[in-house]
Amino acid sequence: MKKQLKQSFICLLLLVYFTVGAQTSPNFANEGRDWYVSKNTGSGKLGTKERPAKDLGNIIHLLKPNDRIHIAEGIYMSKGKRGADEINVPVQIYGGYDVTFTTRDPWDAHKTIFTGVNEYMKLTDPRIYIRTDQQRESNGQKSTGGNIVVAGIIVDNGPRNRYHKNENLAIRRKASPASQQNPSPESGGIVIVASHYTNVTVQNCVVMNTAPTEGAISVRVFKGGKGVIKNNFTINNTGYGIHARTGYVGSDDSVMPHFTVSNNTCLFTWKHDAIASYGGDAMAFDSNLTADVFNNALGYGHMGGLYNKGAKLKMMNNLFTGNAKYDYKEINAKMAAEDMIDEATLVHEESDGNQGLLISIPVGERWAKIYAGRDIITREEVDAAVSVPNTGANQLRSIFGLNVQGGEVAMDAEVFLPLITVEEALSAGRYAWNGMGCNIPKQAQ
């Protein structure tokens, strides 16, 4: 009897190995080590708590699969101020520490800010770019498994952008060799492309002033992988605030990528450019994936709140506000929040609690005046689009807590993705609206 039990136990262990362990290839099964980075106290490449490195960019070539990187408060521009970090193995990055690496407060006392400079011939790649899908084992097979985490990082592309006449009111997408200026990077702030069976988490991050075609936060999960996008804040970006992507082609539900997207706030997402017909959605979801989408606040998309390109979504208690054309778009069908349950075909029948409301958004007054005074959106254009919560110039000003004006607002008509500072932006992401949207993370994970 004991012999039979022992044999059964061995069989069970083998079953667990071949069904779970086998999904993580030897290259990505590395135990990993802890690295420490501090702009203020770091030097060299030891990367220990006692002798941290000065910038993540300085140690990228030393990183191994499953390494954990802890980054203290400070402003980081990468190696040589190139403004972009590319990592090709699964790692876990945690920001928002104090200089002793004992406490974390990533949106307040100990901000870890990733940015750069606009200088001719600097990189225009994503500020944080983790791509593991091309890594291979010694036998030539692609590596699989592992976990990727980015948590507690603030990405501000404002200093990397090129602005018309250097006035910080309108970005330019072309370089200016004469003035030795780069184009505004046409890339997201946090972009992750995972391997098969790799799980990805982006949590407690802020992305602002980026000008991508796709997502300011973009997570692409492949076969057998899962994505968690939780308690993030995107504000003043082009493209999509958050983009859940897939690298899976097939119909097997057991290995189809699944996302949990919760408690995020995505505000003021612009179209690709002033006359573009694409971009401008707070969130977007690819086809060939499933997702639970709940407690998010999706507002002031220049096109809409959520663009579903074919995913199967369960949507609970999401807030939609001030989106110009629609709250929810499914392929080509546009609808308001209150109509999703009746009209959408890809929204799970148990979905509930999604609503359109007008809310107060406490961004900095300087930026609010610029946004409210732009000539792109009028009350008539919003009213003609669809029956969703909307504002005219005075209503928009009241949302920011500004005085209502009776006449036209005197502002430069050429305003597109005007620079918002970290201080101006964070005030709008510190608290949720009745549980919908992000909250300031304290001692965050």
Automatic annotation (TrEMBL):
InterPro entries: Pectin_lyas_fold (IPR012334), Pectin_lyase_fold/virulence (IPR011050). Keywords: Signal. Residues 1-22 form the signal peptide. This is Right-handed parallel beta-helix repeat-containing protein. It comes from Dokdonia ponticola.
